[in-house]
Amino acid sequence: MLSLLIYLFLSVIIIHGDQNVINSIQSIINPDIEIKNCTFGEICNGTINSTSVHFYSVEYSFDPTMAIRVITNMTYKIEQEAPLVIVVRQIRGVISWTLPYTFSNGMIYSSASRILCLQNEINRTHPHTSRVFIEISTSNTDWIDYSLQLENITEFLLETGVSRQFFVSPAMPIYYKFTFPSTIENVFINVRSSDQLCTIVSVQSFDCPVYDVSEIGMRQGHYQTMASIASFNVYASEFPKRNTFLLVFLVQPTDADCLNDQEQTIIRPAGVIDVQRQKNATVTIHPPANYNFLYIAIFITIGLFLLIYFVAFTIMCKHADIYDHLAPDQLPLLEAIAEREIAERNNNQRGYQTFQGEENVVSTSESENEQSGGAIEVIATSNVGFVTVSDLCVKDYDYSKQKFRIYPQTMLTIAIFYSLPVIQLVLQYQLNINSSGNEDLCYFNFLCIRQFAMLTAFNSVFSNIGYCALGLLFLIIVYRRDMAYARFLTKYPAIGKEYGIPQHFGLFYAMGIGLFMEGLMSGCYHICPSKQNFQFDTSFMFIVAVLNIIKIYQTRHPDINPHSAGSFSFLAAIILITVIGVYYDEQWFWIAYAIIHILACLAFTGKIYYMGRLKVTFRVHIHLYRLVKEHGFFSRPRYLNRMMILIPANCINIAFALYGAIIQPESFPNHLLFVFLGNLAIYLMYYILMKIIHRENFTRFSIVFLLLAILFWSSSLYFFYQQVKSYEVQPAISRMRNRPCILLNTFDVHDIWHLLSSFSLFFSFLTLLTLDDGIRKEKRKELAAF
């Protein structure tokens, strides 16, 4: 049938008299076969067009320690219509390519080379004489000059501890062979380069064909994109057939897959010939890391936290809680005084006269509070010149206790529903890494990666154990204090109503759960760190920071503290904004964020200054205007101590917002987290300063915890800013920031941040728990609400 069609076609052409075209077609259909002579190592030149096919049979001496490279060149002319086709046949396999060697972006190379696969030899283990057959053809009617050469690659085998320097280009890929010694189960591959040309580095099984072509090489074995650094942990168990692997290097035609700034990528126009993109790199295979250090690090870390538990339980057993030994000889007297004062107050009216510019207010009943959304419209003040804690805790203690107990219940519910899909997702990520081999999926510190069980970066996951261990310990400490205070109130109810700060532990329980969940979620994130799951690492950090701020405020404002529903709704909005900031990190977003940040600060300023009278709704600006108008636009501030913190706090937050809008930091979640931690630090410093101004006492434990918190925060933040990776850039650029392990040959600087910051948060929580222990014998109506 085919011959019939050709015959008809030739007949039509003959009728039109185009004899040249006839000859051309006939030459393509039935070209002459020319047998060419070429010896190994010789540069063999030839000229060819569509009338012939050149056939070479080259004999060479095979050595298992070397490889054979076929190098081809041509004289390229832009008017050429068809390429040369080079087909290389070995005994057991075939590879082919075209000249000019072209890429999808239009880049053209007139020279190309390929390495012959050793597995195609009959005898792969002993030296022998072999032969390769090369066929060169083209459909181009014009004559094309070409050259052909076969050469040995003498440095083909890699050895542990021996560096190998090489050059590689897009049309001339290269690969090396490594065989595991019987005494080694894994090796660490380290590739370094002085330039940043984008390169694919892949670890493939020792089989044929070798995937050293751009479009295919990226999808075989374990592979990474490389700018100047690439590194792999390779295990012998991955190659059970031959205990051998190939390390393949392939330079990409452009740098678009590696460079973060797309304006810097070398994207050439179509038709550019022989662009000089030769990468100079050095590969070194290191013997396996001493995994005894990994086990030592695990046991030392677990032993450290067991020691902390032992010390904590020893202290708790030897020293009763302060509410269990509150000067027993004085308690009956204080109880009698408190009962007398309560009886006298019950006989008096609930209103009080204004003193030195404070408001004259009347407290609402519990049912009215519920109907008004929990906000206290008016606040009763004492005659000491400032709003006191007594003025802000007029609600029934049991009612407030139940209100704050909702926090840990809500927190636990969120933790369960949040964590279950997260755990399933990150475990699937780990399976995807193992199955696809794409090591660009996760942003590891490849220079300090310790695989254990099924986890690629076990060290980064395990270093989060501190959050979980210390979170549980804090919950135990809070429970002990909660039970002691309950016993105290049962025995001395009048003192509990008149002396010290009213103790509510719901937020402390929520903080402990948050600390534990931060460890769990951070561990999940570090199974496969990436842009898609970064919020797993920061969500509970935001929650913990906000709960700390709320707890400080609640200490002296128990009646006007936000409900858990409102608090967690606010946190949900923050996490939503964080996710948007990760995916839309553009100028418009930073400007919108800055505006929202400033407006939110103004709203919360009014809420805090007017102690709950301002309702934060969509009509907050109207409520704020009415309150300011009611008190006078230019009148003297009624609450100077609150003004002292609100003015500088607003200035700092406006600076945060403007810094983000102008500078646009690399990581929006880190910036936002820094904003919350900064506000927490400002509020805590203000709280401590006001305690000093009012000459309130500190206990030894609170001072020790505060100093330890400062010490650990200072050291942990130092390690936090020593970045070893970043999901904000391309994986190849992120690997340029990788750093070796610095502790027990297991932990890098970020792992140390995990360990130190867990202690920072733990001692910060203990500081808040014990900060007001020194005023438990002070009358509540004499304690300032700041």
UniProtKB/TrEMBL annotation:
InterPro entries, per database record: SID1_TM_fam (IPR025958)
Source organism, top-level taxon: Eukaryota
TM regions (residue ranges): 293-316, 411-431, 451-479, 507-528, 534-553, 565-584, 590-610, 643-662, 668-689, 701-721, 752-771
GO annotations of cellular component type: lysosome; plasma membrane
Signal peptide annotation: 1-17
Compartments (UniProt record): Membrane
A single GO molecular function term of this UniProt record: double-stranded RNA binding
Keyword terms of this UniProt record: Glycoprotein, Membrane, Signal, Transmembrane, Transmembrane helix
Chief place where the protein resides: membrane
Membrane topology type: Multi-pass membrane protein
Recorded family membership: Belongs to the SID1 family.
Protein name: SID1 transmembrane family member 1
